[in-house]
Each structure stands twice: as structure tokens, then as C-alpha cells.
Amino acid sequence: MRLEKGSEMGERIKYVRHGKACARFLGLESRFQRPTRLVAIVAVLAIAFLLGAFFFSYGLKLYDDWHQNRLLHRATALLQEGKLSKAAQTAHELLAGRPDSLPALYVLAEAAERENLEEAVRWREQIARLLPQDVESQLNLASAALRFGKLDLAGQALDRVPPGDQDRAAFHVVAGWLARAQGNLAEQEEQFAAAVKKEPSNELYQFNLAALRIHSGDWEKSAEARDTLQRLSKVPPYRTGALRALLNDAVANNDLAAADNFAQQLQMSPEITFNDYLLCLNFYRKLDEKKFHPLLEKVKPFAAQDASNLASLMDWMNQNALAGDVVKWIDKLPPPQLSSPPTSVAVADAYATVKNWSRLKRWTRTGMWGDSEYLRFAYQAIATRQSRSRSSGTVDKEFETLWRSAEQLASEQPEHELALARLASKWELEKESEELWWRVAENPPMRREALEELRRLYRGKNETAKLYDVLQRLHESSPNEAPIIADLARLGLNLGQNTERSHQLAKDAYDRAPNEVNCAVTYAFSLSRLGRNTEALAIVERLPPEPLHDPHAAVYVALILADASQIEAANDYIAIAYDGNIYPEEEKLLDEAKSKVATAFATPSPAISPSPAELSTTPTASPR
Description:
This protein is 77% helix and 0% strand. With 624 residues, the protein is mainly alpha-helical. The protein contains 33 helices and no strands.
């Protein structure tokens, strides 16, 4: 019994001990399970969160893509419908979400170009930045930059085109327009000719080249250009442009029958513009007076319906000795039609042209001409100086005040400064025009005109040092233009400046255009100064005689003939030069030629050896 109890107790103790162990184990297990469960829960929550975030971001991306595509389709559709402002606005929304969206940039660039907005250059520049190796993007940037006068940017874009792609027709066309903007007409012709050579069937390239070459001094080129334009005048896209070029050419050549035919065709063209009517008026004014006045009276009422056309017609009349008719017409037109620019400017020009200073002063004393306000001050200044109704000092002070006001309003606006410079040149305001033209010359698209005006100004004043500087700048702008090279070389030789370079420039000009009289005479003069008189004479003898009768050319020919001891011929050219208005440095050369001729006359001919019979009868001189 005791043993059983003991045994039972042992079992109980054993059970208790086992239970305590289990309890301890279970307690330990629960302590281990609690963090594990927590980790599992956290992991599940994290995975759920990440999956939610993923699906949420993916959903947002899907929505954003859908929204962006919707905006793009809408912008493209608006662009195709011609709703340019709305298309640009939608593209801006697209660009706000994706700053480098090429489709949005394309829409903005296209819309800006169609509206002729300068911001097109900015959009094309961004596209070219995103696609630096894309040739079309660089060419599009260059074209947009050219349209808005940013010649440096256009040149940089063309420079980024890989050399292997610079022989493409499209590249040559854009490079040609850049050359034209820089005033380099020779380079323009070369580039356009290269484009036609690459794509001979492209009618646009044919038109560009023909419209340029019809003015060429090379008879074969101009004749070929006429044939091309005649053919293209039957092709709708080029009809009007071809007729304009042909009409201008016929008027320049005084071909009445051809000009009348082209004028009639142009007036029947559905694409005729108001400027085309002015072109026809120009023809009839020059070659057919009977048809001119009826056409003018027909055009006047049509012009009066639009302020821009009215101003254009008045400008044309002012430039064609009809300013008196403009003044009479002004009195018949309602004042509101005349009070806003550009018509108000044309009215002022008419009063100035007929020298009606009192009416010009009244016209410009009051009123607001908007963007042309600077011209109101300019015309008022001109009227003040020309009338000179008061003491000279008072007039000059008032003129200065008014003109400075005009300059301030026009400052930093190249188009306005250009108009003001032209006005100053027209009214022979030398000091004012010189300052303005130098400012205008800083703007690449206007540089050629500005330098040509400065060239004319300095030549008229015989300021040869300044003239040489202008010719150097012209040569920098147009390094392949042979006549400019020749002028720079000849003046350098006459002034003794950069003599070695001047000789090289003379040869360069002759190599480029050996049949151009100016280039040939300049090179012959250079050779004569180098002592190569035989070569100089050979060049002159190959030239046709008629162009050499120009007084300037005659000076150099006379000098070369005098060096060759062709006295009679030299005297003929000396006489031709004296009859003309030659430059001071050429007068010195003419004096040199005369001196050589006089020396040749004064030098006795070699005595003929006397015969033996004469020797026997010749008296012997007596010794002193």
C-alpha cells in the first residue's frame, strides 16, 4: 500500500515535473511565436502596401499616359484644323507634364511658324537639342532662325550637320538662303545650283535657281533661267512667282511685248496679290503710258478698302514721281483712313517729297502713330530743318531734339533703325545716317544694305580709309563675291595698304570671274605694279573694247598701254577717263599715265647712221 502510494506519488511528481516542463516549454514557445507572428503580419502588410502602391502608381501612369495621349491627339487635330492658338495651348498643357515631349514641341513649333511667331525658333532649338544627330531637326532650326534674322544661330545649326550629310539637297538650299541673308549672292547661286544637281527633278529647287539666275550677267545662265521660268509658269504652285520674275526681267530689258503678256497673265492669276498690281503698275508706268493711268484709277478704290494696301499704293506713287497726285488724293479721302499707320507715314512722305514743309509740320505735330511714332518725330525734324523759318541756331537745336527723340524710340529695334537710316540717307543727313547705318550693320540680315550705304557715303566724301574698312567688312560677309574682292584689292593697291594681300586678292577675283571687266582690269593693274607688264597687256587686249570705255576702267587701261609704249591708244583712254567722274586716287594714276606718255614723246628716236658720203660733207665741230 505504501509502496503503491509511493509509486503513485512518484508518478504524480513525475507528472508535475513533466507538466512544469511542458508549461515552461509552452511559455517559451509562446514567447517565440509572438514576434514571429508580428513579423509575418508586418510582412503581409508591407507586401499589401507595396502591391497597392504599385497598382496605384501603375494606375496613375496608365491614366497619365491616357491623358497625355488624349492631349496630343487633341493638339494634333486642332493643328490640322488650323486652330493654331488652341493647338499651342493644348501642347503647353502636354509640355507641363512632360517638358521633353517631342510631339508637343513639334506642335508648338509648327503652330508658331504658321503664325509667323519668333518663338518658333525656341521650340526648334529644343527639338534640335533633344535630337542632336537628326539632320532634319538641325535644318528646321536653321530655317526658323533664318526667318527671324538669327543668322548666327542658323550657321551654328548648319555646322552641326555631319559632313556626310552636308551634300544633301536640303542642306544646300538652307545654306543658300543663309548666304543670301549674309549678302553673299555668289555663294547663294553655288548652293542652289548644287541642290538642283543633287535633285534635278525637284521643281522648287529649279524655281529658286532660275529666279536668281534670270538676273545674271552671264547670257547663257539668264536665257536658261527664262526658259525654266516659262515652263514653271504653267505649273500652279510656281505660276505667280514665275510670272513675277519674268515680268521684272522683261521690264528691265525694255521688252514691251513680253512684259505686257506677263502682266496680263499675272492679273488673271488666282494667287495675285496687291503687290502684283504694283508690279504691273511699274511696268505700265515705264513702258506703256496709255494703259498706266486707267489701271491706276482702277487700283485706287481697291487700295482704299485696306489700310495696308492704301499705304503700299501711296508709297509706290511717292517713289515713282507721283507724290503730287498722292497729295491731291489725300484731300479726297476721309480723315480716319489717313490717321493710322502705316497710311499716316505714307502721307508724311508725300508731303516731304513735294517739299510742302508747312503741311508736313502740321501733319506730324500731333497724333499717335503707334509703332511708327519714331517716324513722326523724324519727319517733324526734317520739316523743321528744311523750312528754316527761324534763325539757324534755333532750327538746328529743335532738329537735334526731335531727331534724338526719333532715335531713342527706334533704338534696339533693328527694323525701326533701318527705316530711320533709310530716311536719313534719303534726305542727305550724313552725320545721322552714318551713325544709324553702323548700328544697323550689327544686325546680320541688314548688314549688307548697311555696308553698301556706308560704302556709297564714304566714296562720295572720298574718305578712302573708312571706305577700305567697309570693303573689308563686305568681303568678310561675302568672301566669294568677285566684284567686292576686286574693289578691295584695287583700293588697297591704290592706298598702299596690305599690298601683298591686295595682289593676292586681285588674282583671286580674276580667277573667280576672268570675264568680268572690273576683276580683269584690277588683276591687270596688279600685274603692272609687279612689273609683269606683258601679262597685264595680254589681259586687257582680251577684253571687249566697249566696257573699257567706262571712265574708271579707262584709267587703268591707259596706264597699262602707256607702260607698253602704245602712246596713241593710251591717249585715247586718257581722254575717256578725263570725260568721266573718277576718284582722287585714280586721278593720280591718270597723271602717272600722262607723265609716261609725255616721257615717251620727249625721248628722241634713235638716230639713223649717216651714209659714208654724208660723213665726208658733215662739218666738224671746232674745238673750244
